[in-house]
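Minutes, methods subgroup
Present: GH (chair), OT, SY

1. OT presented the first of two proteins processed in the latest run. Sequence and structure tokens recorded below as shown on screen.
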Amino acid sequence: MRPKITAHNPYLYEQTTAMILTDSLLDFFLETREHTETICKPLEIEDYVVQPIIDVSPPKWHLGHTTWFFEEFILKKYTSGYRIFNEDFSFVFNSYYETVGKRVVRADRGNMSRPSVQKVYEYRRYVTEALSAFLETAPSKEISDVLEIGIHHEKQHQELLLTDIKYILGNNPLLPPYSDTFKEHTPAKDSQQWLRMEEGIYDIGHNSRDFCYDNELGRHKVYLHPYSISNTLVTNAEFMAFIAEGGYQRFDLWHAEGWDWVNSEQISAPLYWHHIDGIWHHYTYRGLQKINPETPVTHISYFEAFAFAQWKGCRLPTEFEWEAAQHLLTWGQRWEWTESAYLPYPNYKKVDGALGEYNGKFMVNQKVLRGSSVATPIKHARPTYRNFFQTNLRWQFTGLRLAK
């Protein structure tokens, strides 16, 4: 039975608040761990080890890596007498943390037939149970903060896991379905309109006690010139028109690097699109389907988003324009490319140690995406979230919104 909270006993208040926080984080942790495994339930055992391209990691690796994160950054560091599940797993499941030590080269993750899928699930149970028991001791705020990062880290991997599974199955010659219930394409409810935003000084960045990543911090003011932004995302019908009018053949619409990419990779449509008997189809989680022209286009690169905007006589919004207008927009179906380079906010400073490698070292040669997508798990999206990818990548649920 929990003690009664009263204003006359500050120690008891702080102690009880810590207990409630720990209980809620424990529930959040267990809910997150379970959801990752739910995502994998439709898979066949052979699907767990496939890696078609370097950007896509095998599902088995995601299961192991998200487990290693908790073992490495909490259990090994803070738990007295913790027994590591397998000494080799740090090498196998470390992603990019130079501080932690050596790791398997990213391109070789698909070569790991061992450890088995069964062994990786045993690893997950072992770490989940050990961490659950540890959390019964009401850990410090420092540990709770790392735990919260670990939970959201796993949620990031849930989105990556879903999109990696789609790429794995979408490049299988049989184009097998993943799920008959996953809904990834919903027509816009509103007709397209231009929303006028006044010039002025706007506050940008995270400004609450809710969780955020360090790249969202450093709330600051930006001056924006007057602009207009579309209330809706660009649809498949609009992108079909771009293709029909030779958008992929017109060099004047593309950055030089984008034009090189189009030609060297022989790009002629968004990822997963197939032109069959004069009709556009695309691979979805339900298998090969005819494209609904009214749903938002997805799986496009920044290069394609930029070229389309040029073709329409418009541009992409900056991430600051997007954030200033987000309360007027309907967002959440697609990660939206912006015209902003991924850079630090004012006074940004990486934290010490391995967790300092989480965001800061990637602030070069990438573009910011805003919003979230149909693959983003619950309790993870927010208006200040800054996603980021290289300009040629499109296996995520990426789309675009126009500005002018």
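2. SY then presented the second protein from the same run.
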Amino acid sequence: MDDVMPETPVTDNAALEAAKKQAAEYLDGWQRSRAEFANYKKRQENELGQLRSFATADLIKRLLPVMDDFDRASKTMPDSLRHMTWMEGLMLVHRKLQLVMEAEGVKPIEVKPNDVFDPNIHEAISQDDADGIESGHIIEELQKGYKQGERVIRPTLVRVAR
């Protein structure tokens, strides 16, 4: 009886190799699925962030005329009214609105006379002759423009020299 050797080790090795191969395939499939899911989550987070950004930008566009009104009121306010308590309260509301805009990443586009006109951030309302200002340069800012990050929410309205 000792002379007969069982043939089970050969089949056990083949079965073991087959199981290892199958386990490696399952592991590879699982890793691919996990990577695909991670990529999917990143895409969804980016899309959600973009959607939030667009929604915020839409709301901000509707609030910009209010900012413009506050700015105009502040610039044209007579000195006799400037130190009245109720007027200071109104200016505090203006400042709160500015802080909300800043918290959302909204900043005014800085424009000075004689800056070069840039159609990406400026909108020309008129082209006029101007002494001492080169053609294609800004004469005057008519309405403040705003950016949220690098995206222009509203271009600055300007007069340009011809």
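Chair's summary of item 2: The longest strand covers residues 122-128.
Next meeting: continue with the remaining queue.
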